[in-house]
Amino acid sequence: MATQPSATTGYTYDELMLKHECPWAKHHHESPLRLSSIIDRCRELNLFDRCLFVKSTKANDEDILLYHKESLLKSLSQAPCENIEQLKEFCRKYEDVYMNEFSFEAAQLAVGGSLNLLNSIMTNQCRNGFALVRPPGHHAMENDMNGFCLFNNVVITAKTALEKYNSKRVLILDWDVHHGQGTQYAFYDTNKVLYISTHRYEYGHFWPNRVESDFDAIGEGDGKGFNVNIPLNKTGLKNADYLYIFFNIILPIAYEYDPDLVLVSAGYDVALGCPEGEMKLTPDIFGHLIHYLKGLANGKVMVLLEGGYCIDTLSESAAWTLRSLLGDPCSPLQSCVNPDPIVKKTVACCKNVLKGYWQSLKIDLTDEGEFWIEEARRKRALAPLVNDHVRPAQYDLTPTLVVKQTEEQKLKIQQDIKRALELAPHRKPLERGRTLIVYDEAMKKFSSRNHCERPGRIEAIWRGLRNSGLDQRCTMISSRYATKEEILLVHSDMFYEFLKSTKTATRRELSELKGALRSIEYSNDVFDNALLATGSCLNMVDAIMSNEGGNGFAIVRPPGHHAHCSMDYGFCYFNNVSVCARYLQKNYNLQRILIVDFDYHMGDGVKDVFYEDPGVLYISLHCADAFPPNEGHPKDSGKDKGLGFNVNIGWLSFDPPAVDADYINAFHHVVLPMAYEYNPEFVLVCAGFDAAEGDRIGWGKLSTCAYSQMTHMLLSLANGRVLEVLEGGYCLSQLNVCGSACVATLLGDPPVRCSEDAAKYPQDLVSLRTIDLIKNIHRPFWSSLFSIPVQDDSAIDQLAESLEQKAMIKN
């Protein structure tokens, strides 16, 4: 029986933060209900019972002065809260700020609680955490309160990480619908913090209406290239749009940066129903975004609450965030297709101005995006942008948000929210170990003298699991032999009977079968061994589908992905993964199955089985000119109904060999966009480790990092139903550590961080050459792959004329 994991997620909040409210507008949208609704929802789901509570204490002046000036601290501490009229006059000095007699202490607690949680993470008392704090902070500047924000919680937290805990690099991701200008200003000239912000901009017409919130504000001095603004120039954007941004900009840059800590300014005003943001992200997407960030910084991720003003989706979004931090499976999103052309324009602009600083952004050619850069700048020129040098003597008092919606529009939004919540119900997490393993010593019986596909392969993986104690954290599934009926789901009766005949064949008869021509060896044990491998995988499938576990790793041999319907091939006899896929289709009526194959050799047998079947999306990452001959070229993309569902990421050259970053970038740019568009119900992995450095057959330079990172990324799909099945890998020491890395990741441990600088950067002759080719081939089939909207030659003239007319009308 697997044991319960210890608490690894911390959280902090304080009841006093609920007393901070607007004294002249009791129904102000930045209200105590924002925080209390999150607390209530997380308690309702029993999430806090699984977390470590970190007490909030008031930050001292020294902490606050890490960023803010003493004059601001003094002014805030002496605010005339006892006289409402004097207080109003005080707040008019700042844009969109309110206070009452509890606000200063609440702001101190927000900073202090964040720093206490940071300490718990950095001292390994917990792995990650959620600072449930208010007032929010990311608009607050060095000497200026702004936008409901008094102190900048995330800036002070980042500076503390750098100065007290010796972090070298901190990533701040800000997905609040408003640009966090205070955070940007704090780190604009340093490379010690990478600040990435996605925010509503509308070419400068949306608050805070600043030119430096646009895509071309990329930092200065040492910080040039380390300030990344991704402006959203329309409302109504959806999950597909944010995932498009994540996979094309945020994740590639973040992995290349390789932070020691990830901080998230989590504003949920981008969620469906929020009247401030007017976006349409469903609450469950935040679990996916957090999941990917957990792949960085050895899992050290700290989320700080910022905005969010639709109570229903705010509380639900925060709950999905906390569940993801806890390691619960992500709720399957509805198919993420057709990112908005406006978003594609923005991404093209961002890539164009940043490609000189980030190797991972050079994968896509962006010269055609220069037209959209010109369009964006011309439209921005018409916006009422803020000029800090011309500051008003006083601002209007922060108003209560007036929602200008018809009753019909309000009803539609409520229906959309109701449907979104129904499509993503909260399921109770598994009480037992969620990761299943199968291993049977009987699979060592089949052997061929001096052959690299030897019994020691599975023994090496099993020994690695036992030595690290991972086996005790998993649930063991019994092995079994596959039935003839199950084998015939993929293989022909003639081939089944032929292989069965080897059980009783004499040594001479076996030698005359000439299997060596197909890289095949025969013995009297191979038939039973192959049946045991396939049947054991099917037991794993049944266990996952019946929720006995969430995912699994099948330590089986012989491998299977080269085996064809009527022919054994390349050390493979029965095609284990293909039989599993057909079994899922027949017994569980699954309509969409994703098979990812990261073996050094392309799985030609799997490809042939599903070549015309859109019910299986087969994606293989392999060396294009390795075994099997004449297979695995990127242009081979399927047939008839299966066209576009066979994806060969065949590295066109392994000179130099592929490194971790090449595979990780292939996932960001190709595998994940396709996978989310496909929306699989189950993920099968052909887990070959022969691209690892030192393998006897493959010629790669992958480390445990690549294998654990790929595993981690796949776990966001199909409600976490991922089954990895051993294929190749012939270096016993690499099988030992790579197999353990995958199982640890399946269990929810942080994926392995890249240990060598060279492995962080995709290579020109590998990634940049191959991935761009793959996108060009498959773009007609997959709308989520990067593309630049086209324009005709006269478009720029038409744009100029249109903007001139608008300018005349405005003036």
UniProtKB/TrEMBL annotation:
GO terms for cellular component: histone deacetylase complex. Pfam families: Hist_deacetyl. GO terms for biological process: epigenetic regulation of gene expression. Gene3D superfamilies: Histone deacetylase domain. InterPro entries: HDACs, His_deacetylse_dom, His_deacetylse_dom_sf, Ureohydrolase_dom_sf. One of its GO terms (molecular function) is histone deacetylase activity. Residues 28-324, 451-745 form the Histone deacetylase domain. This is Histone deacetylase domain-containing protein. The lineage of its organism: Eukaryota, Metazoa, Spiralia, Gnathifera, Rotifera.
